[in-house]
């Protein structure tokens, strides 16, 4: 796997988190396997490769890849506007987080506790998701820039959905961090669109 492909897996996961946030906000639904894939990525510290962060394959990132492709193609008929807005906001928030060593340390400590919860209950358990959501509230939500999630108030006001949305946004931040650590830059989305799309099309087909 080449460096661009590694970056695209992480960036695809950012978009996957954004797509799932949009789905929950509008329908109250999200595939459990996709949720646990992203929540699980928060707890992976020493992966051998980028795919290992997401459970060893990218099956649960395909919707993220599709959203990323539509953003890079700039096709107004297929562009997923809310997921694109969320994904770009996550990339910006991660840059702010990188300057906050205090919050990074807090996140590390809290994720250790969440790992213990996950070992006991399982990654997809509501207690684990709730703890991840609370961690997002206590860290990323303290920034001036906030992600305003648009959707159906019936779903947004349900505590379980609110926790899941925050937990997925936290997972999106983690993937944005990984993308940048792998050499990803926002200017690639503008100046290297064709190159990224050439690598992405085969990944979509798997």
UniProtKB/TrEMBL annotation:
Belongs to the HflD family. It is a peripheral membrane protein. This is High frequency lysogenization protein HflD homolog. Its main location: cytoplasm. The keyword Protein biosynthesis does not apply. It holds the Pfam family DUF489. The keyword Flavoprotein does not apply. One of its GO terms (cellular component) is cytoplasm. It is found in: Cytoplasm; Cell membrane. The lineage of its organism: Bacteria, Pseudomonadati, Pseudomonadota, Gammaproteobacteria, Pseudomonadales. InterPro entries: HflD, HflD-like_sf.
